[in-house]
């Protein structure tokens, strides 16, 4: 269920080549869950556009993309969301705020929309996708034992969050993933259920404040020998 049929359907170019391993690890070592953002610094438009694109390019089960990335720019709305986030300052101080929302329920129409997009992007006949369509209906839409569609959709959203955080680090942008918020209040403030989505996780993005004490703390991780298992 991780075939990702259309997540990269609109990217037809060749691989640009790998970045040096040290560059990647340095970027990931530099990032941290930023607690204090500099409210005077803004992410420029080209950089933000790249971050949005990184989220869009995230893989998902069957490439179904059961999410919406709600970029909140309206100051009064962000103030209300801060209240629904137990007063955490990242919500209003960061340059950008993204609410990662999951599809509340997958339907046959969602499957067909995905099929139609594959046909549009790849120029294939819809009939050639009948098997894929049936597989998606059977595993995602039709009820089956031990399958929670809401939990499935939430897992897809967290994949996108990971892509977003990694992309931010690679571009020198600070970010903070956040689960400490009232999801029901977010849903109400942003009108998400009316559009068929539910708030799942939040990411604030911008640039760290010089006064954030967490920025200088060493990253605490277990040694790879304790976490990586080779069989």
Query: Helical stretch count?
Result: 9
CATH homologous superfamily designation:
NADH Oxidase
CATH topology (level 3) name = NADH Oxidase
Coarse structural class: alpha+beta
Catalogue the unreliable spans: 5-10
| The CATH architecture | 3-Layer(aba) Sandwich
Question: Could you describe the largest sheet, including whether it forms a barrel?
Answer: 4 strands, antiparallel
What number of domains? 1
- The CATH class: Alpha Beta
> What's the total number of strands?
4
- Termini distance? 23 Å
Can you tell me the overall shape?
Answer: globular
What topology, given as strand order, has the largest sheet? Answer: 1-2-4-3
Rg for CA atoms: 19 Å
Order of helices and strands: HHEHHEHHHEHEH
If you average the pLDDT, what whole number results?
94
State the helical fraction. Answer: 40-55%
Strand content: 5-15%
Tell me what you see in this structure.
There is one protein chain. By secondary structure, the protein is α+β, with helices and mostly antiparallel strands. It has one domain (35-214): NADH Oxidase, CATH 3.40.109. It has 9 helices and 4 strands. The chain has helices spanning 21-30, 45-56, 75-83, 90-93, 108-122, 130-141, 149-170, 183-190, 224-227; strands at 67-72, 96-103, 174-178, 197-206. Strands 1-2-4-3 form a 4-stranded antiparallel beta sheet, with helices on both faces.
């Amino acid at each position: 269920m991780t075939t990702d049929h259309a997540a990269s359907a609109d990217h037809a170019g060749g691989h640009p080549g790998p970045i040096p391993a040290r560059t990647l690890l340095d970027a990931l070592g530099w990032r941290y869950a930023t607690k204090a953002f500099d409210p005077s610094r803004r992410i420029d438009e080209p950089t933000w556009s790249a971050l949005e694109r990184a989220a869009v390019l995230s893989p998902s089960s069957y490439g179904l993309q059961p999410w919406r990335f709600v970029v909140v720019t309206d100051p009064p709305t962000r103030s209300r969301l801060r209240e629904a986030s137990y007063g955490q300052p990242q919500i209003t101080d960061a340059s950008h705020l993204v609410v990662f929302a999951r599809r509340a329920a997958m339907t046959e129409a969602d499957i067909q929309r995905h099929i139609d997009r594959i046909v549009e992007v790849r120029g294939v006949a819809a009939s050639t996708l009948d098997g894929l369509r049936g597989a998606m209906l059977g595993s995602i839409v039709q009820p089956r034992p031990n399958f929670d569609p809401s939990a499935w959709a939430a897992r897809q959203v967290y994949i996108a969050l990971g892509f977003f955080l990694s992309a931010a680090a690679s571009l020198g942008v600070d970010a903070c993933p956040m689960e400490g918020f009232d999801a029901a209040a977010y849903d109400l403030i942003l009108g998400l259920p009316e559009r068929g989505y539910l708030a799942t996780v939040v990411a604030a993005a911008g640039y760290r404040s010089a006064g954030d004490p967490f920025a200088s703390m060493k990253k605490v991780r277990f040694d790879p020998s304790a976490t990586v298992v080779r069989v």
